[in-house]
Amino acid sequence: MILLGHNGAGKSTFINFLLGFYVRLSDHPFLPHFKKFLPKLNKKDLGYAPEAALLDLNMSARDYFDMIATLRGVKRYDADTLLKKVALDVDTNMPIKKYSKGMKQRFLLSLALLGNPKTLVLDEPTSGLDPFGRLEIEKLLIGLKSDHDFIISTHSLELAMAMEDEIWILKEGKIEYRGYPKSIEELKSLLLQHRPEKIQ
């Protein structure tokens, strides 16, 4: 599932509701509409990567894997294998402050893979990356499709089409479209049809 829409459309709110960050429908005006569209997911079998995590830059990949594994109850994992899956060739003991922006994005994805969850929930996985970095993330995600389902919030039409998954277009807290556009031109046309009156 790929979530598209303008800033403020509700993409991140939808993801936060899936993850259990909102408990009551009254917590956000978009939630009553979203509730009927929620897929049946086992929250224990989700891997999540936020758009921008407040990483402790003095910690290493090894530190983070140990911490997240403890929080998620993952007994065994191989840090080198997780990093290899996201094409990140680093010393697991090197501080994250030495990572580039693209390396940090791939590292967040590796944390989401910890415990081999069935569904990966990704909020803007290519945000802030240059064209080469975006292509690298797209290639990684496509390569993971055989082993994982995805729920991805993005502004990238290229990523949306490349994943060949069902696309949902959100507008002002409502899901206006669900389907499989055949081309990026068709997708652009759909977005124009469902554009908000005011761009935020």
Description:
- With 200 residues, the chain is an alpha/beta fold.
- It has one domain (2-193): 3-Layer(aba) Sandwich (Rossmann fold).
- Helices cover 37% and strands 14% of the residues.
- It contains 8 helices and 6 strands; from the N terminus they run βααβαααβαβαββα.
- β3 (119-123), α6 and β4 (149-153) form a beta-alpha-beta unit.
User: Can you give the mean pLDDT?
Assistant: 88
CATH architecture level-2 label: 3-Layer(aba) Sandwich
CATH topology: Rossmann fold
How are strands sequenced across the largest beta sheet?
Answer: 2-3-4-1-5-6
Helix proportion range: 25-40%
* Large-scale geometry: globular
CATH hierarchy class name? Alpha Beta
Which percent band covers the strand fraction? 5-15%
Main beta-sheet annotation:
6 strands, mixed
What's the CATH H-level superfamily name?
A: P-loop containing nucleotide triphosphate hydrolases
Strand elements, count: 6
Report the uncertain regions: none
User: How many domains make up the coordinates?
Assistant: 1
Protein traits:
14% strand; alpha/beta; Rossmann fold; 8 helices; 200 residues; six-stranded mixed β-sheet; globular
Question: Briefly, what is this?
Answer:
The protein has a single domain (2-193), classed as 3-Layer(aba) Sandwich (Rossmann fold), CATH 3.40.50.300. The model has no long low-confidence stretch (mean pLDDT 88). The chain has 200 residues and is an alpha/beta fold.
